[in-house]
C-alpha cells in the first residue's frame, strides 16, 4: 500500500505541471489588458506602461511562466491585480466557505441517494423503483440556477422560513449559518443525489445477481442482511468514484450556486476575478481546483483498497 501511495503521489507532479502550463497559457491569451482594467480607459500611455512593468506584463510569455512557476513552487501565488492582496491569503480565506458548502451538499446527497438507491434496487420494478427513478431524472434535468431561484422565491420570499442569501461564519452565528446553507445545499445536493442514486441502483442490482448473494439467500439470511451486509460493500465501489468526482468539483467552486446565494467561496471569487481580469487570482483558483481533483482521486484510490481486497493483492504482486 505504501508503494502504491508513493507512486500515485509522484504521478501527481506531472499532472499539476501540465495543468499549470495550460492554465497560464490560456489565461494569458484572454483578450483584455489587466493594467487598462485597473487604470481605466482614459489613462495615459506612460502610466499604463509603468503598471504593466510592475505586473510583469511586458515580459515574453515563457519568461513570465517560468517566473510564475518558480514563485508557485515557493508557495507564492502572486498578488491580486484588483486589490493587491496575496492570492494565497485570499484563497485560504475563501476555501473554508467552499468546504462547508461541499460537505453540507454531500450530506444532503447521501441522505437522499443511498436510501433511495437501495430501496429502488431492493424493490425493483415496483412503485418505489419507478418513483425513485422519476425523482432522479428530475434532479438531473432541473438546472441549478432555476432550482435556486425557485427555492428563494418559495422559502425566503413567500414563506419567510429562510434568509434569501448571504453567508455568516459558523463560529460567529451557527444558527444563522446553518439556515443560510440550507437552500444552496439542497440545490447542489439534489443534483448530486440523482446521479448517485441511479448508479447505486444499477450497481446494487448487478451485485444482487451474483453467486455469493444467492448463496447467502440459500443459507437462510433475510433480504435486509444480504443487501446491507453483503451486497452494499461491492455495490459502493462505483459510487465512491462518482462521489469523489463530485467532491472535487464542489471544492473547485460551485460557481452558479455561490453566485445565486451570494456565498463568498472559490466559485464566486473565480467569477469576480474573471470579470476584472485578475489573472493571478484566476490562476490560483484553477490550480486549487486541480489540486482538489488530484487529492480527491488519491483518497478514492485509498477507499478502493479498503472496499476491495483484490486491489491490495494486485499491489503486492505488481
What would you note in describing this structure?
The protein is an all-alpha fold. It folds into two domains: 2-73, no CATH class; 88-317, MetI-like fold, CATH 1.10.3720.10. Helix content is 78%, strand content 0%. The chain is built from 14 helices and no strands. α5 (87-122) packs antiparallel against α6. The longest helix is centred in the first third of the chain and has 36 residues, at 87-122. It is globular, with a radius of gyration of 24 Å. The model has no long low-confidence stretch (mean pLDDT 82).
Low-confidence parts, pLDDT < 50 over ≥5 residues? Answer: none
Q: Taking all residues together, what is the mean pLDDT?
A: 82
Q: Enumerate how many helices there are, as a single number.
A: 14
Strand element count:
0
* Succession of helices and strands: HHHHHHHHHHHHHH
Per-chain topology:
Elements: H1 2-29, H2 34-39, H3 45-54, H4 61-73, H5 87-122, H6 127-141, H7 144-158, H8 174-208, H9 211-218, H10 223-251, H11 255-260, H12 266-275, H13 279-307, H14 309-317
Helix pairs in contact: 1-13, 5-6, 5-8, 5-10, 6-8, 7-8, 8-10, 10-13, 12-13, 13-14
Brief write-up:
Helices cover 78% and strands 0% of the residues.
Task: Name a few traits of the molecule.
about 80% helix; mainly alpha; single chain; globular
